[in-house]
Design goal:
Strand order of the largest sheet: 2-1-9-8-6
Helix content: under 10%
Order of helices and strands: EEEEEEEEE
Largest sheet: 5 strands, antiparallel
Number of helices: 0
Structural class: mainly beta
Oligomer: single chain
């Protein structure tokens, strides 16, 4: 089984000219697969498990789940109607990636 995940990325420069860049893409991911580049050769996310109508995703320690202060577990379930945003903590620019489950195949 595969999951189709929509990834929205917002990148904002922290130096002049302070531009914002938006990108949206869809990818197919299998259980155990790492996905979405962190820009340094590594991956930000791993699809841990596919459920009935949601997926369990683990995210890199260099990112934080927006709206959650100091989570103890870096795994969370993402459903079809849910969108979860993750912000990079120590990057050269402001980067936020939002994941949403589109469908299960």
């Amino acid at each position: 089984m595969k999951a189709v995940i929509e990834i929205k990325e917002l990148k904002q420069d922290w130096n002049p000219p302070f531009q914002k860049k938006n990108a949206i893409k869809e990818i197919e991911v299998e259980e155990g697969e790492l996905f979405e580049s962190n820009g340094n050769g590594g991956k930000v996310f791993q699809l841990v498990k596919i459920g009935k109508d949601r997926v369990l995703v683990e995210y890199d320690a260099e990112y934080t789940n927006k709206g959650h202060v100091h989570p103890t577990n870096r795994q969370l379930w993402i459903g079809k109607d849910d969108g979860e945003s993750f912000s990079q903590l120590w990057g050269n620019d402001g980067v936020t990636k939002t994941l949403r489950l589109k469908e299960l195949k």
